[in-house]
Amino acid sequence: MKLTLKIWRQKNANTKGELKTYPIDGIEGDMSFLEMLDVLNEGLINKGEEPVVFDHDCREGICGSCSLQINGEPHGPDRLITTCQLHMRMFKDGDTIVIEPFRATAFPVIKDLVVDRSSFDRIQQAGGFISVNTSGNTIDANAIPVNKHDADESFNAATCIGCGACVAACKNASAMLFTSAKVSQFALLPQGKTEATERVLNMVAQMDKEGFGNCSNTGACEIECPKGISLENIARMNREYLGASIKG
Amino acid sequence: MSILDSKIPKGPLADKWTKHKNDINLVNPANKRNIDVIMVGTGLAGGSAAATLAELGYNVKTFCYQDSPRRAHSIAAQGGINAAKNYQGDGDSTYRLFYDTIKGGDYRSREANVYRLAEVSANIIDQCVAQGVPFAREYGGMLDNRSFGGVLVSRTFYAKGQTGQQLLLGAYAAMNRQINRGKITPYNRHEMLDLVIVDGKARGIIARDLVTGKIERHSAHAVVIASGGYGNVFFLSTNAMGSNVTASWKIHKRGAYFANPCYTQIHPTCIPVSGDHQSKLTLMSESLRNDGRIWVPKKKEDAEAIRNGKKKPTDLSAEERDYYLERRYPSFGNLVPRDVASRAAKERCDAGYGVNKTGEAVYLDFASAIERYGKEQAAIHGNHNPSDAEIKKLGTQVIESKYGNLFQMYEKIVDENPYETPMMIYPAVHYTMGGVWVDYNLQSTIPGCYVTGEANFSDHGANRLGASALMQGLADGYFVLPYTIGDYLSKDIKTGKISTETKEFDEAESRVRELLNKLVNNNGTHSVDYFHKKLGKIMWDKCGMARNAEDLKSAMSEIRALREEFWKDVKVPGGMDEMNSELEKATRVADFLELGELFAKDALHRNESCGGHFREEYQTEEGEALRDDENFMYVAAWEYTGDPGNEVLHKEELDYENIEVKSRSYK
Ligand SMILES: Cc1cc2nc3c(=O)[nH]c(=O)nc-3n(C[C@H](O)[C@H](O)[C@H](O)COP(=O)(O)OP(=O)(O)OC[C@H]3O[C@@H](n4cnc5c(N)ncnc54)[C@H](O)[C@@H]3O)c2cc1C
Ligand code: SF4
Ligand code: FES
Fold first, then answer.
1. CA distance, residue A213 to nearest chain B CA (Å)
2. Among residues 219-248 of chain A, which lie with CB inside 8 Å of chain B?
3. Each residue of B606-656: pLDDT tens digit?
4. CB A58 to CB B76 under 8 A?
5. Where does the Fumarate reductase/succinate dehydrogenase flavoprotein-like C-terminal domain start and stop, copy by copy (chain B) (predicted)?
6. B223-275 pLDDT tens trace
7. Which ligand is nearest to the CA of A173?
8. Which residue, among A38, A47, A62, A109, would best test binding to B if mutated, counting the most B CBs under 10 Å from its CB?
9. Which of B237, B251, B454 to mutate to test the pocket of ligand 1 (most atoms within 8 A of CB)?
10. pLDDT at residue number A81
C-alpha cells in the first residue's frame, strides 16, 4: 500500500505545531498502525530527520498509552480497539491519513503526538480508592459475597484503560465517562459503599478543577471508547452525585 | 568462589517466616517519617510495596518510565493469580502450592522462599478483594477459580482475561490514596539510569526526566528495584515495548550479582510472527488451555495442504488430528507446564507439521469446549434435545464470557474468527526467571538495595508456573518487603537526610551524562532498532528454546561484535535536553547488548537441561529435559568485572530438606 500521512509535528509544549506531509510506501495490511509508524520513523532516522514521537507501550490494547486521533477519530476508524490494535487492513492503497494528538485543554501537547494526561491521575488521587490498609489484616475474601451481576458490572466499569479517547471524542472535552467508570466500579461493590459520598464529590470536584468540560449527553465518548465503557456509568455517577450532594 | 549467604532463617520450614517476622527489628512510627525510600518501578511489585511502605509511614518516591503508574506492564497479565485458598475443596493447601511451584521450577528454586510465597498467597486475595478488585464470581456470590498448567487443582483467581489489569489498578489505587496523603511522591516519565552508593550502601539514584531531559539526583535510605523482566533482550517478546533491563543492569554493574540469566520462559500460546515488520508478540493466555485443545495434522500431507491453503483445519476429522500433548502426557494433557508445551510445539513444527505460512504454528481449538458447554447450558435451561445450532450458540456464549477479550484481540490481529476456526499459536519469549540475586530478605548483594517482582531471580527456579508471577509480585510488595526492609532501615533512624551534594552523586551523574552525550553525538548510520533486531535474532536462534554449546559460544562472540558495532555506528537523532524516544531506546539496548552476552555465557556453563533451559546435549531418549543434580543444583550468581563475557561465577547451593528431588514427570 502507498499512503499519504499528514502528521502533527510540534517540538515541545511552548512552540506551535503544524501538520506535515509524509508519503509512505510498502505498507501491508497485516501491520498494525503503530508498526506503520515504525516504518516511517526508521526511514526518517535513516535520512537524518527526527522521528515522530507518540506514546505506546503494551501494543495490545491494555496499557492505555497509545492515543492518536486518526482522521478525526480517537483510535481511528475501527470500533472497540485502541490505536495499537488498529491494523492497516482498515485502509486502502492511496488513502490519506491525518494523525493528530488527542485534543483537550486538560491534555496539553508535550511533543508531536504525545500529550500530558496527568489530570487523569489526579482525578483518581482525589478518591479513586477504597481506604483499606495493605497490612494483610483483612477478612477472608469469601466473607463478602457479591452478587454475580453486580460483580460483572463492576468489572466492566473497571476495564477502563485511562486512555482519554472519551475526552478527545467529546466536543466539550468532558471526562465524565472516565470518572464515572471508577465511581461505578466501587458503587457496585459492598466494599465501596463506606466512602461513596466523599469519593464522588471529590472526584467530580477534581475533574472540574482540571478544566474538563461539562457533559451534554451526546454519547460520542461511548462510541469511541475502546473498552465499551457504557453511558450507564455516567447515569449512575449522576445519581451518586445527587445523593451525595443532598447528604453532603 | 565465594559462598553466597541467602540468610534463610533457621527452624522448621512452616515456621521460618513467622519466626523471622518476630525476630527482626522494627522502626517506630515517629522515626519512619524521617526515612526515605526510592521505588524504581510501579508495577505490581513496586506499586504494592510503595503503597504499603507509605502507609507504614516512610516517605516514598516512585519512578516509572510511563506517564502513569497504571500503565506498568503488569497491566497486561491476562489469566490469573494463584492462591492456596482451597475454596474449591479440591485438596489444595499451602504445602501443595509450595510443592507444585518447586516441581514446576524443576528443583532450581529456594525452598524457604517458595514456602513463604505459598503461605502469604491466600492473604493476597483477601487484600485485593478488600480493595475492590472485581474478581470473577460464581452465581452464589463466591469467588470463582480456574486451572493453570502443571497443577491438578483449581487455585487460580481471575478477572476475565484482565487479571493483571485489575490487580494493578488495585495497587495503583492504593498508591493514589498515599499520593493524596502526601506520603508518595510520584516521578512518572522518569528513567533510572544509575545507582548511587555511599559508604557501601545504596543511597540514591540518577534519573532522567523523559519530558525535559533533565538529569536529576534523588537520595534515600534504601533503593528498591521493581523494574520488571528483561525478555526484550530477544527484541520480540510479549513484554511491552519499553520493558528493559536497565535498572537491574545498572545495579549489577555497581555490585549486585545477577542470577541465572539464562532461565527464560518461552510461552507456548502466543500469536505467531506474521512478518519482518513485527514489533512485538501477543500472548494468548494459558487459561485458554483449560478449554482449548492443541493439535497438528497427523499426516504431513495434510499439514502441507493447510499451509498452501488447499485445506482448512475444520476439514480434518478427529482421527486425522494429532492432539500431541494429550498423546504424550496423558495425565496433564493440554495443561502440562509451559516449557514442556513449548518444546512439544517446536518438535512438531520442526518435524514438518506446522500449520501456517511459515510452518511455525499449531492449533488451539475450542470446538470441543463449545460443544461441551453448549450441551451443559441447554440442559440447565431445560432444553434436553438441543439442535447443533443451539448448542453452538450457548457454548459460544460461555466461551465468550470466559475469554471474550482474548478472542477479540486474536481476531483483530489475525483477521480470523476463533469461534469458527481454531486459533494458531506458537511459543514466544514471555518471562524471565533469572534476575538480580537476592537473599531471603529480598536484598541484593549491595546493602540497602532491594529487588522485587520479576526483576529479581525470584522464586520460580528454572520455569515459572502460570499465574504465579502476579502472586510473587504482590507477595513481595504487600507482605514481604515491608517487613524485611524495616529491619535494615532500623539502623538508619539517626542518619538524617542523605545529601545529594556529594562526590558519589557527582560521579554517578557524570557517568550518566557521559553515556548520553556519547549516544547523541555518535553520528552513526543505523537506528537503535536495527541493532536491537540483530541482537534479538542471535538470541532467538542461539539462546532460544533449544541451545547447544557451539551455538552459545558463537552467540557470545556475535553479541560482543554487535555491541562494538553499536557503539561505533548507532545513530540517535535529537538531543538529550528534550523528549527523545530514540535516546531512551538506545540506553536500554546498550544494556541488552551486555546482558545478552552474559545470558549466553550462563547458558553455556550450565551443562544440563532444566525447566526453560534446554540444552540439546542433555536430554532423555524421549526428548525430555535431563537435569544434572549432582553438579548443577545451585543458583548461578554472576559478579560484574567490567566485561560481561568475563564475569565471575558465585554459587548458591540449593538444599532440599522438605521435598524429595525427583525427575519431573507430567506423563
Ligand atoms: C502478556 C503477559 C501476560 C501475563 N499473564 C500473567 C498471568 O496471567 N499471571 C501471572 O501470574 N503472570 C502473568 N504474567 C507475568 C507478570 O505479569 C509479570 O511478571 C509481572 O506483572 C511483573 O511485575 P513487576 O511489577 O515485576 O514489573 P512490571 O509490571 O513490568 O513493572 C515494571 C515497572 O518498572 C518501571 N521501570 C522499568 N525500568 C525502569 C527504569 N529504568 N527506570 C524507571 N522505571 C522503570 C516501569 O515503568 C514499571 O513501572 C504475564 C506477563 C505478560 C507479559
Ligand atoms: S472510558 Fe473508555 S475512552 Fe475513556 S479513558 Fe476509559 S477506556 Fe479510554
Ligand atoms: S500501546 Fe498499550 S493500549 Fe495501545
1. 22
2. none
3. 999 999 999 999 999 988 899 999 999 999 999 999 999 999 999 999 999
4. yes
5. 532-666
6. 999 999 999 999 999 999 999 999 999 999 999 999 999 999 999 999 999 88
7. 2
8. A62
9. B454
10. 96
Query: With b meaning 16 or more CB within 10 Å and e meaning fewer, what string describes B157-191?
Result: bbbbbbbbbbbbbbbbbbbbbbbbeebbebbbbbb
E-assigned strand segments in B459-588: none
HEC letters along A172-233: CCCCHHHHHHHHHHHHCCHHHCCCHHHHHHHHHHHHHHCCCCCCCCCCHHHHHCCCCCCCHH
First to last CA, chain B: 39
Distance (angstroms) between ligand 2 centre and the Cα of A30 equals 26
| Dihedral Cα A82, A88, A93, A99, nearest 10 deg | 30
The residue-averaged pLDDT of B465-475 equals: 96
What chain A holds in terms of domains, given with CATH numbers, is 3-111 (3.10.20.30), 117-247 (1.10.1060.10)
In terms of Cβ atoms closer than 10 Å to its own Cβ (0-12, 13-18, 19+), residue B657 is exposed
What is the identity of the amino acid at B580? N
Dump pLDDT digits (tens) for B111-135: 999 999 999 999 999 999 999 999 9
Measured between beta carbons, the chain B residues lying within 8 angstroms of A161 are 75, 165
pLDDT at B622: 87
Q: Report the alpha-carbon distance of residue B241 to residue B243 in Å, rounded.
A: 6
Strand partners, B547: B615
How far apart are the CA of B330 and the nearest CA of chain A, in angstroms? 34
Question: What one-character-per-residue DSSP string does B139-165 give?
Answer: TTSSBP-B--TT-SS--EE--TT-HHH
Q: Is the CB of A221 under 6 A from ligand 3?
A: no
CB contact under 8 A, A63 and B66: yes
Beta strand spans in A18-106 (E): 18-24, 68-70, 73-74, 96-101
Distance (Å, whole) CA A181 – CA A198? 16
Report DSSP state, residue B384: S
Nearest residue by C-alpha to atom 5 in ligand 2: A162
Give per-residue pLDDT as tens, A66-96. Answer: 999 999 999 999 999 999 999 999 999 999 9
> Which of B88, B124, B131 is the best substitution to test chain A (most A C-beta atoms within 10 A)?
B131
Q: Which one of the ligands is nearest to A224 CA?
A: 2
Please check whether residue A25 touches B, CB under 8 A.
no
What atom in ligand 2 is closest to the CA of residue A221?
3
pTM of the complete model: 0.97
Those residues with Cβ within 8 angstroms of residue B603's Cβ, 6 or more apart along the chain or in another chain? B262, B543, B547, B552, B613, B615
Strands B190-198 and B184-187, by their bridges, are unpaired
Helix A176-187, helix A118-125: angle, nearest 10:
30
Q: Which residue of chain B has the CA closest to A189?
A: B132
Residue of B nearest to A183 (CA): B132
- Rounded Cα–Cα distance for residues B657 and B611 (Å): 21
Cα–Cα distance for residue pair B437/B306, rounded to 1 Å:
47
Domains of chain B and any CATH numbers: 13-263+433-492 (3.50.50.60), 268-428 (3.90.700.10), 505-628 (1.20.58.100)
Q: Do B408 and A80 touch (CB under 8 A)?
A: yes
Residue B195 host element (H or E): strand B190-198
Contacts of A163 in chain B (CB under 8 A): none
Q: Which ligand is nearest to the CA of B249?
A: 1
When pLDDT is cut at 50, 70 and 90, the band that residue A248 belongs to is low
Contact flag A128-B160 (C-beta cutoff 8 Å): no
3-class DSSP state for residue B499?
A: coil
Residue A191 near chain B (CB below 8 Å)? yes
Q: What is the dihedral of CA B494, B500, B502, B507, to 10 degrees?
A: 130
CB-CB neighbors (< 8 A) of B530 in chain A: 42
